[in-house]
Specification:
CATH class of the largest domain: Mainly Alpha
CATH superfamily of the largest domain: MFS general substrate transporter like domains
Number of helices: 16
Shape: globular
Number of strands: 0
CATH topology of the largest domain: Growth Hormone, Chain: A
Number of domains: 2
Helix content: over 70%
Structural class: mainly alpha
Strand content: under 5%
Radius of gyration: 20 Å
Length: 382
């Protein structure tokens, strides 16, 4: 394994607490955007088509900045990169809440996606260093904190807005919480940098590319459930429109539960079986959501899909510490960038297939893709 050298005490509880806090606050920051959307649409007049293009700025920001994450960590160290990302995230959130120009909003969304994308990779790199130092599987728990942060952030801002606080004031309060929390655990982020300064994004090796492709399928499923489950439930399963969001809520809840229970599961089953079982369970969940006659069973299906997906990507990222074809920080950068493309491709792919056939057929193909994860799992025997 080729990893960043570090003089930090990676076995210190402070380092683990900082990593958990970093993931939680990254999810917390990501979730701020959804409750803000109606207020942004009311403040800035635009068509649905233009708004759709603006949303692409988030993904473009992530995909354009994520490839340089490894070199930033190697040259500056984890702590400085996290500080810069948190500062940029705060500025982006403020811009999203306050600007009344479409161009400034596009810039804010671009920086929002970019800062969160780099933050995700950097926190994964620190997580691998901790796992290596302790000899324990902690990645699922760390990723569980991200999921918990996403749910908590959405509920917190929604509650503030429901109590009568303005969108601007509510968002600024969330920004203060994000910055304060990260500063409070600042000493727990690794300060060191690689002596050689690192290199730019490089073409991933075969094993790293496989990790990226399997993560691509998992992230594609998450994006598809996020953007299309509500429409499928309300049109095909006759669920009330106001309750359409229950599909993704079921998925996200089971992802969170599955990740917090992940360590003993992975220790018991091993890496390959965890990945295989996760892919099969996720595929079965999507199949149940398609064939269920009642929307309640479809919700169970989306929950099963979330439970199946929960530990696949954390285990895959964790496996990168056991390959020696690439430095770990560059392997994490490459695999995560390839995987994240699924978040962007998922909704578009489902929409394209649904346009020429139906949503049921689109979700059926998604189930087959999830099933393919089980076949790829053979390469990850402990």
């Amino acid at each position: 394994m080729s990893a960043l050298p570090t003089t930090a005490d990676l076995t210190s509880p402070l380092v683990r607490h900082a990593t958990r806090c970093g993931f939680f606050m990254a999810g917390f920051g990501l979730s701020v955007w959804a409750p803000l959307v109606p207020y942004v649409r009311a403040r800035i007049e635009m068509s649905d088509a233009l708004f759709g293009l603006l949303l692409l700025c988030i993904g473009l920001g992530s995909l354009s900045w994520m490839p340089v994450s490894g070199v930033l960590v190697a040259r500056w160290g984890i702590r400085p990169v996290i500080l810069c990302c948190v500062a940029l995230l705060a500025l982006a959130l403020a811009g999203m809440a306050l600007v009344d120009s479409i161009w400034l909003l596009a810039l804010a969304l671009f920086c929002f996606g970019g800062s969160l994308g780099v933050l995700d990779i950097v926190l994964n790199i620190q997580s691998l260093l901790i796992e290596g130092a302790l000899g324990r599987r902690l990645m699922s728990n760390f990723h569980g904190m991200f999921s918990l942060g996403s749910i908590s952030g959405a509920l917190a801002l929604t509650a503030l807005l429901s109590l009568g606080l303005s969108a601007e004031a509510g968002c600024l309060l969330m920004i203060v919480l994000i910055v304060a929390a990260n500063l409070a655990v600042l000493r727990g982020f690794v300060p060191d940098r690689a002596p050689a300064g690192g290199g730019a994004f490089v073409r991933p090796s075969g094993q790293v590319l496989l990790v990226g492709l399997l993560c691509f399928v998992v992230y594609l499923a998450e994006g598809a459930v996020l953007d299309w489950s509500a429409l499928f439930l309300t049109t095909d399963k006759h669920l009330e429109t106001a309750k359409g969001g229950l599909g993704y809520a079921s998925f996200a809840l089971m992802v969170t539960i599955g990740r917090f229970a992940g360590a003993p599961i992975v220790n018991s089953l091993g890496t390959a079986r965890t990945i295989a079982l996760g892919g099969v369970l996720a595929a079965m969940g999507i199949a149940l959501s398609i064939f269920a006659e009642h929307w309640a069973l479809a919700l169970v299906g989306y929950g099963l899909c979330g439970l199946g997906c929960a530990n696949v990507s954390p285990v895959l990222i964790s496996s990168l510490s056991r390959q020696d074809a690439m430095p770990v920080h560059l392997a994490v950068t490459a695999a995560t960038t390839v995987g994240f493309a699924g978040v962007l491709a998922g909704p578009a792919l489902i929409g394209l297939i649904a346009h020429y056939s139906s949503l049921a057929v689109a979700f059926g193909l998604l189930a087959l893709m999830l099933l393919s994860i089980a076949f790829g799992s053979r390469r990850f025997a402990d």
